[in-house]
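Worked example 3 (structure in, sequence out).
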């Protein structure tokens, strides 16, 4: 705000001079008696200044705090009228003292803030002068706040002596009832300082004396476990632990009662048997060892040596027991290490011929384990539409070691154990087993599928067996296999998956092997109603075959018009009454070699998961499971050599 007072005074002086020259003026009337000039109304311009704005803001805050203090003082005055009538405990007096202390603290804070405003007014007056608008506004605000604050404190000071007198008389009366005389000066000091220890001084002294006596007793006396009954002792959980007492335990066994607990007194209604022969007191004392502990005696050096030797022996015994416990734990747990010494068990649970053979395959895939993405992590990434670019965190807590998870997957695939059975064997939850199977199925499909199993003609010729000398250009031997599955509820799916050959709903796949027995091609699974020729077309193997290659198939594969390579297939009888001798020999030669693909398929289907009816709950990853089983057969054994087939 800009001060226009000087400007108005100057204009008034100009008008008065003009009035003295002219007797009549349209805007100024001259009074000859007092020579005062009336000034016409003028517009006053106001501008905002930060100094006055901050001052008024602080003044408003102080005014609000004074209003709150006024309310508390009024409440305090109303409480003093009923103080003696409602006061039954000294806690009420303490509460009243806290109210008084709060009022004092708030009053001190307001007084300091008013002093700060006074200093600010003084600085403004020194800078702008006493007639400045800012100075006058600040002076009026400070005077108003100071007056209101003084009025509130005067009201508080009027009620304070009344409260002190009532409290003092109440304290004196209570102390007289307790048998202690207190002078009026002591009561005044007590009310002023708020120290009430005079009422419980005796109790504090007694507690202090009792505490010191108890400390002396604890320092001079100790009681060992011999003086407590066995039901009052808590045995340690470890060998180096100490026995503890139950809560509320009391020593009851001493020398004077012969370290025996007194039996509870029988009821008068209970029948008691009398001793046949009375035993004298002397005979009882002869059989009782009444020697008590000597807490002040020190152990002899020989006893220390014996105790240290006993401690060493005990530590060795503990180590041996721990080793035995570890061996028993390994024998009890269902893990790969348990069957490491039995190749028969390894062959049964994993289809690998021996433990060394299994570990050789594990060493091949172990470097890629850290790249494995758990199925739960993949699902969460799919929900958030983000790409899984980082590998699984190594700090993630796993219930089973990776090699035991691989062993669990092989048990599921090779033995066909149910998920609940695997959960009980490996001591994990069934959902954990399901996640492990899904994770390892995807991992092995990706890892083994990244290896190209289709061989070039040169590689096939390099490993061509002697039995194929009549068919040297054979690239692959093909055959289809069917897996029985659960009948779906949909009639349309039933018609697509029903196989007239198996008279059951099945899933069919095309498997191809090289002449030396390695699996080189695996197709996806199709419905059982799809023909072998249609699977050959849709599987994509026709694109891999060239004109210089030959494929060997069964008589049911009519694929001569579907591929550009040569097809070795047993001849048909057609309209002939009898097959010629050369065709018979050709059929026998082809059948003798083509049977190897059936041997490989039999090895694949020795995995008990495909032996029974496949549940539709596994249909989401049955393609991957079948592909993994086919590719694992290349690592498990040789297809052309009959060894441990059962």
């Amino acid at each position: 705000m800009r001060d226009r007072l000087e400007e108005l005074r100057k204009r008034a002086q100009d008008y008065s001079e003009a009035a003295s020259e002219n007797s009549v003026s349209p805007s100024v009337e001259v009074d000859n008696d007092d020579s005062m000039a009336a000034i016409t109304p003028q517009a006053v311009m106001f501008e905002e200044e930060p100094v006055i704005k901050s001052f008024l803001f602080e003044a408003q805050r102080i005014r609000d705090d004074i209003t709150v203090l006024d309310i508390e003082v009024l409440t305090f005055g109303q409480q003093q009228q009923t103080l003696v009538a409602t006061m039954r405990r000294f806690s009420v007096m303490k509460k009243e003292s806290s109210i008084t202390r709060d009022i004092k603290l708030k009053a001190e804070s307001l007084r300091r803030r008013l002093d700060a405003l006074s200093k600010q007014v003084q600085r403004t007056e020194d800078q702008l002068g006493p007639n400045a608008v800012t100075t006058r506004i600040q002076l009026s605000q400070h005077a108003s706040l100071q007056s209101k604050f003084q009025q509130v404190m005067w009201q508080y000071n009027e009620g304070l002596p009344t409260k002190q007198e009532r409290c003092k008389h109440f304290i004196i009366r209570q102390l007289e009832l307790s048998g202690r005389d207190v002078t009026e000066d002591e009561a005044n000091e007590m009310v002023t300082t708020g120290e009430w220890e005079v009422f419980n001084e005796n109790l504090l002294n007694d507690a202090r004396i009792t505490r010191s006596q108890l400390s002396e007793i604890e320092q001079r006396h100790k009681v060992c476990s011999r003086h407590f009954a066995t039901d009052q002792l808590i045995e340690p959980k470890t060998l180096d632990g100490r026995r503890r007492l139950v809560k509320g335990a009391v020593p009851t066994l001493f020398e004077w009662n012969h370290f025996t607990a007194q039996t509870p007194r029988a009821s008068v209604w209970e029948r008691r048997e009398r001793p046949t022969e009375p035993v004298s007191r002397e005979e009882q004392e002869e059989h009782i060892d009444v020697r008590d502990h000597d807490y002040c005696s020190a152990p002899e050096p020989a006893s220390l040596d014996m105790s240290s030797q006993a401690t060493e022996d005990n530590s060795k015994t503990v180590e041996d027991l721990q080793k035995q416990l570890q061996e028993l734990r390994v024998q009890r747990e269902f893990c790969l290490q348990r069957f490491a010494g039995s190749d028969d068990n390894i062959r049964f649970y994993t289809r690998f011929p021996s433990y060394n053979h299994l570990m050789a395959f594990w060493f091949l895939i172990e470097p890629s384990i850290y790249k494995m993405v758990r199925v739960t992590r993949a699902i969460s990434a799919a929900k958030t539409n983000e790409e899984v670019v980082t590998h699984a965190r190594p700090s993630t807590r796993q219930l089973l070691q990776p090699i035991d998870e691989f062993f669990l997957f092989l048990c599921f695939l090779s033995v066909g154990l149910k998920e609940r059975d695997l959960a009980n064997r490996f001591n994990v939850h069934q959902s954990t087993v399901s996640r492990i199977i899904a994770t390892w199925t995807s991992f092995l499909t990706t890892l083994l599928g990244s290896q190209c199993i289709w061989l070039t003609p040169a590689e096939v010729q390099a490993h061509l067996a002697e039995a194929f000398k009549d068919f040297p250009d054979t690239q692959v031997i093909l055959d289809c296999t069917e897996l029985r599955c659960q009948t779906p509820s949909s009639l349309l799916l039933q018609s697509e998956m029903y196989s007239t050959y198996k008279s059951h709903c099945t899933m069919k796949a095309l498997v191809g092997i090289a002449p030396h027995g390695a699996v080189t091609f695996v197709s996806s699974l199709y419905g059982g109603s799809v023909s072998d020729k249609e699977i050959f077309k849709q599987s994509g193997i026709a694109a891999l075959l060239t004109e210089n290659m030959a494929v060997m198939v069964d008589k049911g594969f009519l694929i001569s018009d579907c591929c550009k390579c040569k097809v070795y297939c047993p001849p048909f009888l057609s309209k002939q009454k009898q097959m010629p001798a050369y065709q018979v020999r050709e059929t026998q030669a082809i059948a003798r070699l083509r049977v190897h693909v059936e041997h490989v398929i039999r090895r694949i289907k020795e995995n008990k998961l495909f032996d029974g009816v496949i549940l539709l709950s596994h249909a989401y990853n049955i393609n991957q499971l079948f592909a993994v089983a086919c590719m694992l057969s290349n690592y498990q054994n040789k297809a052309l050599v009959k060894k441990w087939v059962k």
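Notes: The chain has a mean pLDDT of 78. The chain is about 50% helix and 5% strand.
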